[in-house]
């Protein structure tokens, strides 16, 4: 992607993300109509929908030839990553948004012909913007994030993962994952995949594992994690397909082979 074009898109995207954050903060204390989607714990609110519709309207006005993949369905029916594709989660961590009013993020990844060019993750309540352009480093607000540390082992690693690995897991034997959580230094569950990617890029988590995520959960995070030398694959080490759901492993590259070997040893 041409750098001048990319800078223009990036500046617009950051502006819209910050504006969307203001809308959320201004309106989040009004009564929210909360619905459920695939199961009783899969929540969506009127603000998730409103924010996605806001992005779609802005993007279509300014960039009529761009495509949009959005969680709430206001975007396009995208079947190929050809061209410029915005991949948007208007509120990642809706359960946190509804119950805790914090620890949720807006996630926007912008891909050109399948290559992640721009990643933006906005922690709305902390007012922290993680952002990256491919090849130009990753930033937390104005501060450039350093490359990931090279002295991490599984035994001193902090890994983001949730309880589904231990109890409702169709992919990996639960006993193996119990051994895994005992082997690593600690685990964390923040309830927002986008924030877990941001924390992995920041190096405050050494890796993040998820059994099943959608493109909008990971599109921005992959770009940001790449820029600090991190890697993202599925749990078998395959490249993530940005048009499908998949398992996810994002980590410091020094841990990748050990993480994959551990998980694969318990594959069902
Ligand atoms: C969810 C969050 C959560 C992850 C779920 C996602 P949503 O996104 O990222 O951390 O474990 O799998 O669906 O539904 O709040 O946008
Ligand atoms: Ca999400
Ligand atoms: Ca969402």
UniProtKB/TrEMBL annotation:
Q: Which domain of life is it from?
A: Bacteria
Q: What Pfam families does this protein map onto?
A: Inositol_P (PF00459)
The record's section on PROSITE patterns has:
IMP_1, IMP_2
Would I find Metal-binding among this entry's keywords? yes
Q: Which residues form a coiled coil?
A: none
The cofactors it requires, by name, are: Mg(2+)
EC number per UniProt: 3.1.3.25
> Which top EC class is given?
hydrolase
Instruction: Kindly list the positions annotated as binding Mg(2+).
Output: 71, 89, 91-92, 217
One Gene Ontology term of the biological-process aspect is: inositol metabolic process
Keywords tagged on the record? Hydrolase, Magnesium, Metal-binding
Output the Gene Ontology terms for molecular function. Answer: inositol monophosphate 1-phosphatase activity; metal ion binding
* Reaction equation(s) it catalyzes: a myo-inositol phosphate + H2O = myo-inositol + phosphate
What name appears for this protein in its UniProt entry? inositol-phosphate phosphatase
Origin organism is: Oceanobacillus polygoni
